[in-house]
């Protein structure tokens, strides 16, 4: 579907949970976030319905994110349900990778097309610090199992924080090459101040060619990462919600004050 700036919007990022097994410093406040009640979170049937309507409006690329998508109970079943929908050409997932040793093979068998795995540092202490407690070895095991499960064109996502890990870019690039993966460097963004940058090694961050909208775990369609404009699919209805959110997609991002990154899905 074309928006009012003639951008073709065909990519839906779906946050399937606002829970996570890490607490990255740039993604959520130290005190955590107020979790949604179970009934506020979209169930699988609702997500399937939303994707079907999205396909009917011209969407064909979908990505599961969160929070950490692999902590959502039954995630493999959801992947299966979505991968079977006619018109879903790409079904990808962004994950911190910690649970991939358990799930990579099942995700592949369920029809997931591709993985993006987040990895900000190859230094054990730094990884632990930026994720507030994560173990680098677990992330590396996840990356290995993605390869072993047969995933191709896997991308690594590194958030670069100046003065913290900007000295690791060469090392991370080398690691990606060794693992036959591409690496994307994303400079740490700040939703509240509106600071955002282009993505080195990938799309995103260039408003003039933006092709996406986002669905939050509690059923709100969002027009832009850096805007608080959102429409509730449950109250407005799915197709109307898509039309409204695309009609109101801003020419460029400003800021978002109401949600943290973990509640939008990045
Ligand atoms: N838990 C999964 C993960 O970390 O890959 C998926 C959700 S996470 C919110 C999606 C992506 O957003 C991750 O690659 C993460 O690094 C990125 N992200 C989170 N906060 C960010 C920020 N402030 N600036 C830039 N990227 C950010
Ligand atoms: Fe969790 Fe991903 Fe946010 Fe880190 S970036 S806290 S892994 S949702």
From TrEMBL:
Cofactor(s) it depends on: [4Fe-4S] cluster
Origin species: candidate division WOR-1 bacterium RIFOXYC2_FULL_46_14
Classification via PANTHER family: MOLYBDENUM COFACTOR BIOSYNTHESIS PROTEIN 1 (PTHR22960:SF0), MOLYBDOPTERIN COFACTOR SYNTHESIS PROTEIN A (PTHR22960)
Gene3D superfamilies: Aldolase class I
Protein name (record): GTP 3',8-cyclase
Keyword line: 4Fe-4S, GTP-binding, Iron, Iron-sulfur, Metal-binding, Molybdenum cofactor biosynthesis, Nucleotide-binding, S-adenosyl-L-methionine
Annotated catalysed reactions: GTP + AH2 + S-adenosyl-L-methionine = (8S)-3',8-cyclo-7,8-dihydroguanosine 5'-triphosphate + 5'-deoxyadenosine + L-methionine + A + H(+)
Record carries keyword 4Fe-4S: yes
Signal peptide feature range: none
